[in-house]
Amino acid sequence: MALIVLDALTKRYPGVTALDDLTLEIEPGIVGLVGANGAGKSTLIKLLLGLLAPTSGRATIFDLDVRTRGTEIRQFVGYMPEHDALPPDTSATDFVSHMAEISGLPRPAARERTAEVLRHVGLYEERYRAMGGYSTGMKQRVKLAQAIVHDPRLLLLDEPTNGLDPAGRDEMLELVRRTGTEFGMTVVVASHLLGEIERVCNYLVAIEAGKLLRAARLDTFTEQTGVLAVEVEDRADELASALVLHGLDARAVGRVVLVALEDDRPYDLVRDAVAALGLPLIRLEQRRHRLEDLFADAEPGETAA
Amino acid sequence: MSGSASVPPFAPGAPALRGSPGGPEGSIYDLGYRNYDGPRLGRTHAIRALFVHTLKVCYGIGRGGRAKLAPFILLAFATIPAVVAVGALALIRQVGGGQIPEEASPVRHDTYYGIVATLVALFCAVQAPETLGRDQRHHLLSVYFARALRRTDYALARFAGIAAAVLVFVLLPQLIIFFGLVLSAEDVAAEFGREARFLPGIFGQAIVLSGVLGGISAAVSAYTPRRVYATTAIIVLIAVTPLVSAVLIELGAISLATLLVLLSPADILAATNAWWFDSRPESTAIFLTDLPLEAFLAAAAVITAACAAILVRRYERIAA
Description:
By secondary structure, chain A is an alpha/beta fold. Chain A has helices at about 40-50, 70-75, 90-100, 105-120, 135-150, 165-180, 195, 220, 235-245, 265-275, 290-295, and strands at about 5-15, 15-25, 30-35, 55-60, 65, 75-80, 155-160, 185-190, 205-210, 210-215, 225-230, 250-255, 255-260, 280-290. The model of chain B is unreliable at about 1-30 (pLDDT under 50).
């Protein structure tokens, strides 16, 4: 049974249609909600939470209507907003345990869960300090912690990697992946960065201008042939020509050599060629071809922020 | 590839391989996540928790030292006259000043609300915007409304919490006087019997006061995240209305003045205080408008209810 069911869900503001007749079923798992800024991702999340009322249509979570059964649903839903949502004069411990209580947990349980969850998101001694002095990375962690402290069955994350540096992004994505797999929550991650979201999701929903663009399981793509991106420190051109000599379809783009991947043969050849040339290899990455097709209808560049 | 293009070249491709250097991530992993199978108490528990939280926030508890400064300084000022009066009385009793009637003291149950009125108004004007404004300033409404609460629950729990904070503020000095008088007497039981007649007045007036002033200050504060605006508006509402009604009485516009007096929190509270303690109201406006004191009690109830309704309506509509 689908966890979230949207039936012709529509939200109109004067002059703008934020969500247009969205019909969709979302199964348990880690769901990426992709779209450009203003595509309607946040609107959809707020409708699911009952923070906004739909203009028309219906949405259910756990088979309960979000309009009428909001408080029951929200006992089992966690929400990490896009914007800053932390009082600066309060410590992470006090804030998160207060939020656990507002989700219905008794005080002792709220305290216990807070300590556990803050450890899980990687916040230690600093959890007793006022949050005003936290770095963006720490703030994002607290925002995630307050969203999972009551052990929800559904977690809605709105741009969780916003404002983070590359290392912070990777850590946050890893946390999201663990939340979905180890913690057993269904996670909906809204992001305008497809490249990021595809690393942790197993289901992808793409929306544009409030309309559903495409929804599909991601693992159907993993078997697809794709492109191997080989990043080297310099002399990418030489590597590309060496690979072409071995009969591969390769071309250099800046410091990256893109190699067409029909079978496993290129891996060995790339390894040998890199070793033969003595190049410092930075990374090897398999890129999926088909994922872009999801956005074939979208304006180019719009999804890639 | 469209997405990958946005990832800076130095970002590792496989996030799972990268932990914070030297960080204890491995040990977190080992502890494992435990699901919560305990009770979920839902809405009523959430409302209670929010009420208690509001009361604490009003006194800066759990918010660092600076947040406690204003409420506790005001509370100290409101309490000092009570402590001094009780101390002086106890001293006189000790040295055997005989039966000096308590009525001789300027600080009594029936006069106390008049003495601290300004401080109570200041407490409301400063702490209500502080409490409600911070939720709007720091975008906390969306994380509250995304939980096991309704918007109405939020509005009423915050209102009740602010009113309770005011209640504590005005009851503390009154109870200091009460217990000071009772416990410093030679015959404690007899003194308690004499003083107990003031108890309904002490609590009754405190409840009326916290409803009216707490309500007005909460209703005003809900409309702006900016503390300065809210504080100014509250002070104007409380301090200026009695002046205007006094001027209107001077000008002879009694009917207009009557209406305004029934809307003026300061006049209403002076009148209800007189009603509870069976004394003369301190405001001349109340005499001149020639209204029964019960009318002010009703006005207080109406204002409290109206403020609650305003709050509910405001939070029904506010964007979160």
